[in-house]
Amino acid sequence: MLDFRSALLPFLITVFDLVVSVLASVHVILYKRDTKSAIGWIGLIWLSPILGTVVYVLLGINRINRRAQYMLRGTGHLVTHAVGPYLPDILDPIPSLEGSPLSSLVELGDRVTQWPLLAGNEFAILDGGNQAYPAMIDAIEASTRSVALCTYIFDNDRTGRLFIDALARAVARGVEVRVLVDGVGAQHSWRSVARSLRRVHVPTAEFLPTLVPVWLPYFNLRNHRKILVVDGTIGFTGGMNILEEYHQEMCLRDSNRDLHFRIQGPAVAYLQQVFADDWAFCKGEILEGDRWFLPIEAAGEVLARGVIDGPDDDRDNLLNVILGGLACAKASVEIATPYFLPDARLSSALEVAALRGVQVDILLPSANNHKLVQWASTAQLWQVVEGGCRVWSSPPPFDHTKLMIVDQSWAFIGSANLDPRSLRLNFEFNLECYGAEFATRLHDLFQDRLRNAVPITSDALNARSLPIKLRDGAARLLSPYL
Fold first, then answer.
1. Are residues 218 and 264 in the same domain?
2. Which residues, at least 6 apart from 140, have a Cβ–Cβ distance to it below 8 Å?
3. I need a surface site. Which of 23, 358, 384, 475 has the fewest CB within 10 A?
4. What is the rounded CA–CA span in Å between residue 71 and residue 450?
5. 316 Ramachandran zone, left/alpha/beta (phi>0; psi -120 to 50)
6. Can you give the CATH number for the domain in which 348 is found?
């Protein structure tokens, strides 16, 4: 029998640590594309014996391994499934953009997403919960075939219960309803919204259920998408979760701000397809047939394309499209985001755009709902401010809007923030939209938000006290995981 007081046990532990550290390091070298990330993980593995390897196994390895039939984005199979009736037409060149400064951005989107740009879409801008929630609920109430709802947070509050009741009535009418809530977002209420939905017979799934508490939001591999599709022909997407704090009618104070969109036209098929993929991943059920996918008539003049990204895809789709938009900008770039933690590539692209003479405006909330993010963001702002970008601080209430506009001609809307969590660690869905009329409407909205904002200057950043600079700088070290 082994004597634990003998010298053999430390030897065995040392050998075990050496073996697992080597194996973990090999995994890092083979699968981590980012050099800084790889160096950091290897340092942790070797400098924290056994514990470093355990942390890497728990947080550093991507366990999202979708079934092969749901990984066909690069082959066109999913596009055929979703927008088959339009396939002969939508792959033709789009004359309205030939020779345009944005034509290279179209080509970039073609190659990055391998999804075609669809013509004939109409976008209604829904500014805040008072506009978005009633429009979404009205669409659910009018549904006759199907309702697909995916959201990060679905709170079991007064606003949430309006949705629960509308979904329950749709089920009672014989409408096919599916609701997908992220595993972390489902815990936003003490009473689980998933349980409340199932109680009224609404088919519900949690995306990667977890025991991580909601007060620990910095957790990888979350489904951050916000998608609602009704009868396969009406879509809603943007930045809005389902929360009464964004619903002025339910708030005793000023509600938080956000932006959502009601979409009609062929691009709705992208929303439906992304939902169908996520639902199949969670439940193994394939959504198909004319209850879910229908021929969709043209409804407007906007050209639109879905852009999906997540930790199961190493192509950096969202970031590449954003970088492409910055490279194509001739006169102006307008960005609104609640969480701004740009990596070196994005910071450099913003600075280069400003140095080329492009007016770059970045609008951030003055009081963030995640303090660590705000501190880390503040520590990085000097780079873009000194590079010539104009950064603005919007007063309360908190603004959760996610928006990018280039030259009042192209807009990028959806669920993604400009931080590593959205661009690398979460599942996101955005739409790139070509159309001067739509982009100009968004420009006007952005300018309206800008009127009450205060510029963040180099002098103001430098005037922070030493303790505040140290706090912000320490938070910046955590930015890859915030």
1. yes
2. 147, 163, 166, 167, 170, 228, 230
3. 23
4. 41
5. left
6. 3.30.870.10
